[in-house]
Amino acid sequence: MKVLGIILAGGRGEYLSSLTQVRTSAALPVYGKYRSIDFTLSNMVNAGVSKVGIITQYSPRSLMDHIGSGKEWDLDRKQGGLFILQPYYSPYNPSMGYKGTADALFQNINILRRGNEDSVLIGSGDHIFKTDLTKIFRYHLDTAADITVLTGNKDGECGMEGMDRVVCKNGRIIKWIEKEKVSENPEEGDCVALGIYFINKFLLRELLYSAVPNGENELVKGIITPNLSSLNVREYRYNGYWRDIKLSKKCYFKTNLDILNPEIRRELFYENGRVFTKLKDLPPPKIT
C-alpha cells in the first residue's frame, strides 16, 4: 500500500492512574512480552506500510526504548522507515507541546509533504486488535471516500462504551456524537468509532491548514465533524476483537485475561500476520 502510517501514542490514559505514572499508555505491557503499541504497528507493517510516524508526548522514554530503530518491525530502512515525532520548541510551537491530535499532525506537517504516499492511515497506540488493513484500504478506494472510519458495534464489550458514536446512512457517516454527549441520548448512533482512519494525504494537509491556525486542535472535533456534509466520510464495520486499554484499570485487566480465550488468542496471534515486538534475551534467574 502507498500509505503513510501515523500512530498517536502521546496520551497518558488518566483513568489508569499509577499504571501510567512513568510511561504512556501505548507502552503498557500486555500478554506478557508485548506492549500495546505492538498491535497497531504490526497491523500496519503486515499490510505493507513501510513508513510510520509515531507521535509521542507524555513520558515517552519507555516507549522509545521499546520501539528503538524499528528493527523488529523491519522499519530500520533507508527508504521510509520509522519516525519518532516528539514535540519540540519552535516559533510555531513556543509552548513545546501538542494541544491535540490535529495540532500534533500540523506541527509535523513536513512528514505529510514528503514521500509518494497518496493516503494516510491514522491509528492509536493503545488499541488492541488484529485485522487485515488492506481490505479497509481497498474499500476506501472503491467507495472514493475522502475519509474512512473503522467502526464497531455499540453493544460491544470493554472499551466500546467510552467511544464516540456515529450515525450512518448507506455506509456514509452523517452525524458524529462525541463520547461526552452519548449519555444525553444513549440509543442514538448506529455504532462506535474505533479511532482508525484512512484519509487522502493532500486533503488532510488542506484541512489541517484551515483548522489548526483557527484554534481547532482535535482531529475529530475540529476536522472530521465539521466536514461531514461536504466530504464523503465512510464507515467500515469491524466485527472482530477490539479493546481500548486506557479507558479503565478494569478494562486493562480484562484485556490481559482475554488471552486465555482460545478464539481470541487465535485471532490475535495466528490470523492476519504476526505480532512483532522487541525481545530481550536475558539469562534465566536463579532463586536461592
From TrEMBL:
Alphabetized GO MF terms: glucose-1-phosphate adenylyltransferase activity
Keyword Amino-acid biosynthesis: no
Pfam families: NTP_transferase
Keywords: Nucleotidyltransferase, Transferase
Keyword Cytoplasm tagged: no
Highest taxon, organism lineage: Bacteria
CDD domains (UniProt xref): ADP_Glucose_PP (cd02508)
Swiss-Prot/TrEMBL GO biological process terms: glycogen biosynthetic process
Annotated family: Belongs to the bacterial/plant glucose-1-phosphate adenylyltransferase family.
Cross-referenced PANTHER family: GLUCOSE-1-PHOSPHATE ADENYLYLTRANSFERASE-RELATED, GLYCOGEN BIOSYNTHESIS PROTEIN GLGD
Name this polypeptide is given: Glucose-1-phosphate adenylyltransferase subunit GlgD
Biological source species: Mesotoga infera
